[in-house]
Specification:
26 strands, Fumarylacetoacetate hydrolase, domain 2, eight-stranded mixed β-sheet, SH3 type barrels, homodimer
């Protein structure tokens, strides 16, 4: 059982007990953007904590915490952020008086989450999206290619991925307009232009990197997790009709880059350690040596997607889990750099849609409604084949198990506005 | 004829007469990275020029010119950089004494290019690569798909593009290692891992953007050029064997992102104005209204590619021209933002391989050697199907015509090191 508790009140169902301590960027009417750590329904202001002297003898400067993004803090590397997190655990531990009993310090350091605005946690140098859930790849292959050979020949040999657009990644809570675009609904007629009619979400998680190696130097499987800072929820919004017409032969472009939604709190790998699990056997076919897993690198994180219409009650349309990935994060990062490609601190690498084997675990409306053939019945009597104007899509994620702390991710929410 | 000349000596064959004035980032042993403008074989130090008071009453601060990238200067927008360029023309005009006759100022302001190191001109937020040369797309289609239907159905309806990797774009002169990667040379056998055997260049040009509109607001054809700062040469190095195995269905990834080479001097659209020409008729099929060209948006720029082996003389393997593009830059930017995708100052959008209709104008070894079936004979007796270790690939570009100033781009060079 978790003996460790905090003197900060943490509701039992909170995503953010002292065992989590995710990092984010917040501001209030009185505080400019800066680094914070979530605990219960409070935020620990790391700038204030540093100014009051609680972060001495750690490899950080005040500038790292008063930055409007996590990049300077992340740039200090894994050992440094781990030491910082360990210090925070001590400071917040119910059994230690150091900060607990300094009432006027506590008042300067804690900010209610309800009073804060959250911001995109990192300045994203490059964003990569993988395609690493076997069930998702199979579902797409069955729908659009050959049901008997749903997986393409390369899929089990390498983590297929592509570069996405960094500029249009927004923090949870940012509304997005339905995109206009070119599509060809009738293959016998010329293409048309207008608002996307097949707007979809994709349930993903994303990891954020530490600064990697110089251009030309690969990161090995053994090293990969040393370059992974933490994870967020990630909605890779997709306009299926735009995507279908444009994506051959160079991949998704305008069907994706109108916006992606990221949750504001970055949960560290250290916090997720109790939920580390082995992944699937990768023996049929065997993966090449540079991608072979020698220690468990998957994580057991429950995920859910809720659609909340403008005026009606919401409905959970998907319950999935990060464990359904075929390729884990270490494999993704190793593959990404095996050709010498360099990674910078704050780069984002997303999982691809995380679908499980059962229909209730499919991570996109494309799969849930099976290309529109099986509409989802909403509580208000309406149906959803894809996302409608006024819908809010909310991704949530949480690792929990009896006897283990709840390590939650908060949510990644986005409202779709009319085109 | 050009009456305008500069009091700075400009050799007749220089890429950089007073009519060009491209912007770049340079440093010397005595000067930190800063903004410079090329003229003849000199660089005008804009930080020094500002400090000496020559840039007064322009919408720039000293910080814009002592930045290690052009982004702060570009962020001031098109009208501002145009006014700056006009001021520089006046200051460098042979008929004006303002700067010409201030000998000790001239000494502080001019730096020989031979004494300076050039750097990547911009911090690149996002890099997009298009695929806009019809001859290149046809050649690839003939080789890998159907010779009778070489162009895919979408190709003449939209400028096909994809997101590339910003982190691995390097300035001319930066050596790159031959990438390792996964490939499947024998489709009947499992994939293999090793150094790429089919390393290629791609002759491209790239444009650099001003800050665009907020997320959700498209840029129209009428507005597009107001958001384009200037152009460089661009080598989109490609590992064909890695690319061939990985790219289905999500596009190029590790076959490209091990490195791309950019020339250091950014030539403004204003400098290229004398070389503006109409593009191809786009009536079969007609393009959708949002992409229709109403005024000439193509440019006539001669391009060449030279391969220089480690110990032997070099050979020009390609002479092409930017005019061979089907889609122009305004169309690329308009399409890119039509779904609301936002563009930041310093983003890079490359043309795709620029091939002309004749074999001598093909812009990649893939096309020049026609998949390796027609090796190129080098002066030293060796052959090239693809790029060998120790080869330097040099892209050059220049607009010139009788009675018009020569507007050159310098070069984008890269040496390939062993894997």
């Amino acid at each position: 059982m978790n003996e460790l508790t905090s003197w900060v009140a943490v509701p039992a169902d909170s995503d953010f007990p002292i065992q989590n301590l995710p990092f984010g960027i917040f501001s209030t009417s009185e505080r400019t953007k800066r680094v914070g750590v979530a605990i219960g329904d409070q935020i620990v202001d790391l700038k204030a904590l540093h100014m009051l002297g609680y972060l001495e003898n750690l490899p950080f400067t005040l500038a790292d915490f008063e930055a409007p993004v996590l990049n300077p803090m992340i740039a200090r590397g894994k050992q440094a952020t781990r030491e910082l997190r360990n210090r925070l655990v001590k400071l917040l531990d119910a059994s230690r008086p150091d900060l607990r009993d300094k009432e006027h310090h506590v008042g300067q350091i804690l900010v209610p989450q309800s009073e804060a605005a959250m911001h995109l946690p990192v300045e994203i140098g490059d964003y990569t999206d993988f395609y690493s859930s076997e069930d998702h790849a199979r579902n797409v292959g069955k729908m659009f290619r050959d049901p008997e050979n749903a997986l393409l020949p390369n899929w089990k040999h390498l983590p297929v991925g592509y570069h996405g657009r960094a500029s249009s990644i927004v923090v949870s809570g940012t509304p997005l307009k339905r995109p206009h675009g070119q599509m060809r609904p009738d293959p016998a007629a010329p293409p048309t232009f207008g608002p996307s009619r097949l707007l979809d979400f994709e349930l993903e998680m994303a990891f954020i990197t530490y600064p990697g190696k110089p251009l030309g130097d690969p990161i090995s499987m053994a090293e990969a997790e040393d370059y992974i800072f933490g994870l967020t929820l990630f909605n890779d919004w997709s306009a299926r009709d735009i995507q279908a017409w444009e994506y051959v032969p160079l991949g998704p472009f305008l069907g994706k880059n109108f916006g992606s939604t990221m949750s504001p709190w970055v949960v560290t790998l250290d916090a997720l350690e109790p939920y580390r699990i082995p992944g699937p056997d990768q023996v049929d076919p065997p993966v090449l040596p540079y991608l072979q897993v020698t220690s468990p690198g998957h994580f057991d994180v429950d995920l859910a997607v809720e659609i909340v219409p403008e005026s009606g009650p919401g409905a959970v349309v998907c319950r999935s889990n990060l464990k359904h990935m075929y390729w884990n994060m270490a494999q993704q990062l190793t593959h990404h750099t095996v050709n010498g490609c360099n990674v910078r601190g704050g780069d984002v690498m997303a999982s691809g849609t995380i679908s499980g084997p059962e229909p209730g675990s499919f991570g996109s409306m494309l799969e849930i409604s099976w290309r529109g053939s099986k509409p989802f019945a909403m509580p208000d009597g309406s149906e959803r084949k894809f996302i409608q104007d006024g819908d809010t899509v909310r991704l949530t994620g949480c690792a929990s198990a009896p006897g283990k702390p709840r390590i939650g991710f908060g949510s990644a929410e986005g409202l779709i506005l009319p085109a």
